[in-house]
Amino acid sequence: MPLEPPSPGPGAAEIDAWLARLRHDLVKRLVWPARDRRDAGGTPAPGELVPRLIDEEGRPASADTLWAALAADAPRGLDLDAFAAALTCAGAAAAAGDVAGVLALEPAFDDLAAAARRLARSLNPGAM
Predict the structure, then answer these.
(1) How far apart are CA 97 and CA 50, in angstroms?
(2) Is residue 104 a contact partner of residue 89, using CB atoms and an 8 Å limit?
(3) Minimal CA–CA distance to 42: which of 86, 3, 97?
(4) Which residues 6+ apart lie within 8 Å of 10 measured at CB?
(5) At residue 86, what are phi and psi to the nearest 5 degrees?
(6) 9, 77 in Cβ contact below 8 A?
(7) Residue ranges per domain, the chain?
(8) Long-range contact set of residues 105-108: C-beta below 8 Å, sequence gap at least 24
(9) CA nearest 117: which of 8, 14, 7, 22?
C-alpha cells in the first residue's frame, strides 16, 4: 500500500473564511459599540459597550462561548493565546465602560490575521 503524501496545511481560502467568521461573529460585535461611542464622544452608559451576542442558532451566547467554538475551528498550528488574552481584556473593558480597552481588540485581531496568513504561506509555500 503506497504512502499518501501529507495533506497540506490550511490554505489561504480556509484561513480567510475562518478569519471572516471571527471578525463577523465576534470582533465587530465587540468593537462597533465602542467605535460608535468614541465617535459620538461622552461617557458610555452602564452596559452600553457590552455586546449582545448570539450563537449560530440565534441563541444568546457569551463571548467566551463563541470564542471557544471559533477557536476549535482555527487553523491547526495557529497560536491563539495573545488574541484570547486580548478578547478577555476587551470583555472586561466593555463591562467597565472602557472604550479604548475594547478598541484594543482590533490590533489584536490584525496581529492574529497576519500570523494566520504567515502560517498558510509556511505550510503551502507555492500556493500563495
Answers:
(1) 8
(2) yes
(3) 97
(4) 18, 75, 76, 119, 120, 123
(5) -65, -35
(6) yes
(7) 12-123
(8) 105/27, 105/30, 105/31, 106/27, 106/31, 108/82, 108/83
(9) 14
The whole-angstrom distance between residue 16's C-alpha and the CA centroid of its chain comes to 12
Closest C-alpha among 93, 120, 87 to residue 38: 93
Indicate the length of the chain as a whole number.
128
Element (H, E) at 54: strand 53-54
Q: Name the pLDDT band for 121 (thresholds 50, 70, 90).
A: confident
Mean per-residue pLDDT for 27-37?
Answer: 97
User: pTM for the complete prediction?
Assistant: 0.86
79 phi and psi angles, rounded to 5 deg: -80, 115
pLDDT tens-digit series, residues 84-113: 999 999 999 999 999 999 999 999 999 999
